[in-house]
Amino acid sequence: MTSVLDSILLQNNFSTPEIRLIWSDENKVSKQLAVEVALAKIEGELGIIPKTAAQQIIEKAKVEHLNLLALQKESAQKRHSLIALIHALQELVGTEAGEYVHYGVTTQDIVDTGIMLQTKEAYDVIVQHSKALIQTVAALAQKHRSTLMMGRTHGIHAIPITFGVKLAIWLDELLRNHKRLRQLECNEVFVGSISGAVGTYAAFDGRGIEVERLTLAELGLVVPNISWQPSRDRFSEFATTLGIYAGTLGKIGHELFTLMKTEINEIHEPFRKGEIGSSTMPQKRNPALIEGVASLTQPIFSDDSVILQSMLIDGERDAIHWRNEWVALPEITSHLDAQLVQLTYILSELEVNTVQMRKNLDIQGSLPYSERIMFKLGKVIGKQTAHELVYQAAMKAIENHDDFISLLYQEPTVSTHFSKETIQSWIVPENNIGENLAKVDDVVSTVQVYFRGD
């Protein structure tokens, strides 16, 4: 094993079967053959190569007709990534038709167009899994629209929120990520290349632009304005878009990790009978799935850096930089898809401890309602004056473990204008969540409308 993606024991923690299949050797060769087939078909139709030769190439260029180990051996001998495939295809179609295999193109055309087909295939899977995650979060946000919990800033209790609004914030961010994914198609990221040695179409006898346009239409890829052999920004745009998405998923995973801590105990990931949390501590129910989601963001960030360096091409083409794409693209797409699928499962089966959420609201007694109290007092005695009075009472309550409301009511400025019962009425949790519920509804509705038109 040289990679966790190759490990039968580990691969499902770091990838999904769908993405692994896309980046398999079989699919890689299949996509390269698809480019050769589309090229031969168009060249045959245009009379650039004999139709009989084109037909032979179309019929014979199938991955099941090839010996991948033989391709690997010849590639190593020739130190060339594609020449073995070209030779094998020539042998398959026969001497006469073999003269027209790979006609007019360079290796970079086939490799780039093939890997773009793989990338687009991975993208399509990711888009579908992204949609499934978003719909899962939307349903959970609706379900817990009014579920009270403590909001935390800097890791410290702040004021009440609902679990629904926490989920809606995630949901809004996930939707933005999904839109960024879809924007890749609008930005013409998924292009092919059929332009020859240095992108000038020199070997096509004046018909190269036409050949490229028709061949890429056959393959379902966008036609570039000009050669992109030395311009690798599209892969960088793709990778960094997935990197931003991974950042969101890692943040959500880390937040779930925090909420599952024993001392907080507000959520639990799905737990199956027989699952083992520790080999030495039988009582443990660890956040294994949640940790898995959060952990995959880091390698994606690292691979994004590798992809960005592939933009530093020398001249019209070199093999120093663009080989980075072969390393990073499979890893980025594999890890992100694993995050999407795993998080969808976690949230679809998430155990939400609403009782503990409510208990945690009461840990600091009435202190989390100091903001509302301050503004209520401020309407009569002035906001800054109210802030100072509330601050002093709150600090005494924390330091002396005393009752905040009682301390506050000892202030003559407060007791002169308000009854203790009135102040007590301001600390009802349900009345301290502002316009949370309206915002949850807005975000969920936005998601529903978006996917109706998607």
TrEMBL record:
One of its GO terms (molecular function) is lyase activity. Residues 365-444 form the Adenylosuccinate lyase C-terminal domain. Its EC number is 4.3.2.2. It comes from the Bacteria. Keywords: Lyase. The keyword Lyase applies. InterPro entries: AdenyloSucc_lyase_C, Fumarate_lyase_CS, Fumarate_lyase_fam, Fumarate_lyase_N, L-Aspartase-like, Pur_lyase. This is Adenylosuccinate lyase. It comes from Streptococcus alactolyticus. The lineage of its organism: Bacteria, Bacillati, Bacillota, Bacilli, Lactobacillales. The gene is purB.
